[in-house]
Amino acid sequence: MEKCDIKTGVFGLDPRTHLLSFLVVGIAAMLVTGLLETALLQLLAAAYLAANGRARLSLKMCANFTVVCGLSFLPLSGLYGALFVSFLHMIPPFTAGCALFTLSPSAIMCALDRWRLPQRVLVGVCMVFRFASVLSFEARSIVRGIRMRGIFPRAFDIVRHPGLAYECVYTPLVMRSLRLSSELAASAELRGIEIGRGRTSVYHVGFTWRDAVCSTVVAVICAGIYGTGVIL
């Protein structure tokens, strides 16, 4: 197997393969109803994400799934119980979709451009991936700055003053997002975001036998999980 750069994923899969895997897992998550089948889908999505170079993120998603699963068993009134159950079914496809973060936005836009998607959709996808990878870093920087200034010396102080904590984090995050959006717009203009011809990328874009095998395996396992739920 040829050596693949991290920007093209561990297996060098096409971005559209990750998108198809996300759709297949999402459809299966909507069809299954049992907790066992949903947990199996989460294990499949976590294994898919870990195999594409994000093992730590897959463990975090499994931990989130466990927490939401526990919350769904609480005797909550109204729509809260249904809300946690809905979140429970949303985590597996989101976990599989996180494999797209292993790729370069350039490869993603080039692959989606070959599907003749509108330019506005391509720009929106690029913005989502850019901000999703940066906002967590910016949030951690804001929290470190708050602690250095001694505003919340203890974690319990955040619970005592949630409004102040929200203001101290939300306002700087909005200001940094505005600055990042301006920088991103300038960078997009320099990289020819409005080019009318077909886009190109230095990273791998195109279907190979690896994409066919991966898509087939994911589809077969999802079908098997759904079939298990029907039989049980």
Helix and strand pattern: HHHHHHHHH
Structural class: mainly alpha
Helix tally?
Answer: 9
Strand percentage: under 5%
What percentage of residues falls in helices of 4 or more residues?
Answer: over 70%
Radius of gyration: 21 Å
Question: End-to-end distance, in Å?
Answer: 40 Å
* Uncertain ranges: 1-7
Overview of this protein structure:
It is built from nine helices and no strands. It has helices at residues 15-31, 35-51, 55-72, 80-97, 105-113, 119-148, 155-160, 162-190, 209-231. The model is unreliable at 1-7 (pLDDT under 50).
Summarize the structure.
The protein is mainly alpha-helical. 72% of the residues lie in helices and 0% in strands.
Provide the fold topology.
Blueprint: H1 15-31, H2 35-51, H3 55-72, H4 80-97, H5 105-113, H6 119-148, H7 155-160, H8 162-190, H9 209-231
Helix pairs in contact: 1-4, 1-9, 2-3, 2-4, 2-9, 3-4, 5-6, 6-8
What key phrases describe this protein's structure?
232 residues; mainly alpha; 9 helices; flat
